[in-house]
């Protein structure tokens, strides 16, 4: 299933390894928002070419349920995401994947990007949550409606949302965002700057909204 491939790919992207080593990219080195990046090429299931991935973990005082509910709400998306800023976001399809109706797979459309849809999966339980997205084309969406599982390259991005446990008590949320771009017509250094700025801007807006 395409959504499952997206989630597995995101989990691989968020992990560190000797091959995909994360290095600090933001010059300010603020402890509250240190963005790290890595370079990838030839990963299975990804579009061809060189990709730059940026990730950052921040501590929030809000509960992980509040953060999850904010990020999964498509009406909030234009508030924090650059691509959907100023756009009307609507769900073209929504499939619940468990007894909690917040656990679901959706396909989202943006009024200012007719050629791109977003596949979204949200999942939550007491141990943590995630909200993960990947751009897809309308043709892929039509194939999904007919039950055709295409082996398409995906570039997932999104959030890991974990309760921040201090001793025996909950103390807010650990929010990790991962975003990636394909390096085209720019230098690798410029790509790092772009993807780092996207992550920093989004997280700052989310912090302002939920804290």
TrEMBL record:
Pfam family, one: PDF2_C
Source organism of the structure: Rubus argutus
InterPro entries xref list: HD-Zip_IV, HD-Zip_IV_C
Span of domain HD-Zip IV C-terminal: 3-210
Superkingdom of origin organism: Eukaryota
Protein's name in the database: HD-Zip IV C-terminal domain-containing protein
Stored PANTHER family: HOMEOBOX-LEUCINE ZIPPER PROTEIN MERISTEM L1
